[in-house]
Design brief:
- 17% of the residues are buried.
- The longest helix is centred in the N-terminal third of the chain and has 17 residues.
- By secondary structure, the protein is of the alpha+beta class.
- It has a single domain, classed as Alpha-Beta Plaits (2-Layer Sandwich), CATH 3.30.70.
Length: 101
């Protein structure tokens, strides 16, 4: 199992646009076999940082999703929406593995 952590720097004047973008991706990750744990928007503190977490059964399954997302019409629509609204300034992606007792 691998969890992808996305740390976004967003335009604080475009939080509504980013939220629309986020809502587009949640079902898409699930469509490709992942489990989306949600997006987290600014509340208190920094007004330009948003987060997302989703899990795939393996890094290989994540890579399959990434490759397929560039060909999927709904994913392309989400990519284009982010470009059109310019709500994302930058992002970084990290991967984590769980530890259970």
């Amino acid at each position: 199992m691998v969890t992808c952590y996305l740390n976004y720097i967003i335009d604080p004047k475009k939080i509504n646009e980013f939220e629309t973008y986020a809502k587009m991706w949640i079902p898409l990750v699930n469509k490709f076999g992942g489990t989306h744990h949600g997006y987290f928007l600014p509340s208190e503190g920094r007004n330009n940082v948003a987060l997302a977490l989703f899990t795939f059964p393996s890094f290989a399954k994540y890579e399959e999703y990434r490759e397929a997302s560039f060909k999927d019409k709904e994913c392309i629509k989400a990519f284009e929406y982010a470009d059109k609204t310019d709500c994302i300034i930058s992002y970084e992606r990290s991967f984590f593995r769980p530890v259970f007792n």
